[in-house]
Amino acid sequence: MTKKLSILGSTGSIGKQTLEIIEEHPEKFKVVGLAVMQNIDELEMQIQKFQPKLVAVFDEEKAQILASRISANIKICSGIEGLIEVATHDKADLVLNAVVGSIGLLPTLEAIRSKKTVALANKETLVAAGELVMKECLKNNVKILPVDSEHSAIFQCLNGEKITDISKIILTASGGPFREWSYEEIQSATFKEALKHPNWDMGKKISIDSATLMNKGLEVIEAKWLFHVDVDKIEVTIHPQSIIHSMVELKDFSILAQLGIPDMKLPIQYALSYPERIKGEVRRLDFKKVNQLTFTEPDVKRFPCLALAYKAIEIGGTMPCVLNAANEILVDYYLKNRIGFYDIAEYITRIMEVHQSFPYSTTEELQMLEQWVRSWIVNELR
Ligand SMILES: NC(=O)C1=CN([C@@H]2O[C@H](COP(=O)(O)OP(=O)(O)OC[C@H]3O[C@@H](n4cnc5c(N)ncnc54)[C@H](OP(=O)(O)O)[C@@H]3O)[C@@H](O)[C@H]2O)C=CC1
Ligand SMILES: CC(=O)[C@@H](O)[C@H](O)COP(=O)(O)O
Ligand SMILES: [Mn+2]
To answer: Is the previous residue joined to 304 through a cis bond, with omega within 30 degrees of 0?
Structure first.
């Protein structure tokens, strides 16, 4: 049977690779909805090729320009309502969420409430509101299929295992572009240097997160919610080759790992085809060409963001939402050359000292908090 898909963030790195997989398997997958922020030129080409029934452009002006360019029988919507409409399209069997940032939270929640399976790349959703999202999954008997490479690896390792048998999750981290740089060198690193990831070609925000190791911190929080594991059982190891995508140690101390060439096509494809496996244009790992697989402890002095993420989830409540919101804003400032590399960690440290975490129960509370984070940072950096 053909699976029908809505793709949020179709013009991004994950979104485009998803469409390439769909193009390879037209008998298996069909696109019914696409959502983007503002890139209507790319979206227009995607519309011609995939003929979705519904598209959303977050930016209202751009949505209007697109409307003047394309056929009237494709519905165009905008704003957060548009994103939600695509996420809940009645024909969609699977919603792939690959937008960047916590803007992905509401469409994820609404997709779950509409009983859609969600293939989740947008890790910020689980960092900001993991507890709420997992409760909705339970209530609606809905599955989240991880797209993030480490979480896909863990998901694949756990196939057939009991979650209660997990003794430890070992998340691998490449170490990013500054793995071997001194503190002083990193201090003056430009955003262009930070964008040069050694192993993966990704969007700007996640590339900076990988350079600060905040990406791994966000992934620790993501793993806690996806696999119902306490953070003290989640370990990070620096594995510069990015061949082992993560590991699980079970209670009998058997360690399971998933390996492959660093290529997001595999985890994306697995989330699309699950529970089946399909053969696609994924690069094959030749074992004989792997010279060495190395593992070292992360250095939280040079990469304080990792420790901040552990601290935020240990405090719990609204603290991870504050960490995430502050990080999103500060990464944007860094990309605009307005702050230095270590200012990201510095301002996150300070806002976490100011914020009194509380147990939240609604997305409105989190949205108000995000607004507070933004005004706090704007004020500090004035
Ligand atoms: N890239 C990767 O290899 C990996 C990414 N991830 C995660 O996946 C997510 C996406 O990452 P990536 O693909 O790299 O990011 P990109 O920056 O490449 O793409 C982001 C996409 O989201 C869209 N978007 C942003 N804001 C909105 C909005 N308000 N409404 C609708 N669409 C929006 C963008 O549209 P537009 O083009 O119009 O701006 C674009 O299509 C992130 O959460 C990231 O952490 C996880 C693992 C690996
Ligand atoms: C491809 C993927 O899943 C990214 O999240 C990747 O893990 C980033 O690399 P780092 O290990 O450097 O964070
Ligand atoms: Mn990852």
So the answer is: no
Nearest ligand, measured from the Cα of 174: 2
The enclosing domain of 83 has a CATH number of: 3.40.50.720
Which residues form the pocket of ligand 1, taking CB atoms under 6 Å from any ligand atom? Answer: 9-15, 35-39, 58, 83, 98-100, 103, 121-124, 148, 200, 202-206, 264
Ligand 2 atom 8: residue of nearest CA: 210
pTM of the entire predicted model: 0.98
Query: pLDDT at position 371, please?
Result: 98
CA angle, residues 306, 311, 316, in degrees to nearest 5? 130
199 is in an annotated binding site: no
- Is 27 exposed, middle or buried, given 0-12, 13-18 or 19+ CB atoms closer than 10 A? exposed
Condensed to tens digits (0 to 9), the pLDDT of residues 262-273 reads: 999 999 999 999
Tell me if 326 is assigned to some domain: yes
Look at residue 333 in the predicted model and tell me its pLDDT.
98
Which residue, of 81, 115, 142, is where some domain finishes?
A: 142
Mean pLDDT of all residues in 35-51: 98
* Ligand 2 contact via 171 beta carbon (within 6 Å): no
- Residue 243 located in a structural domain: yes
Q: How many domains does the chain have?
A: 2
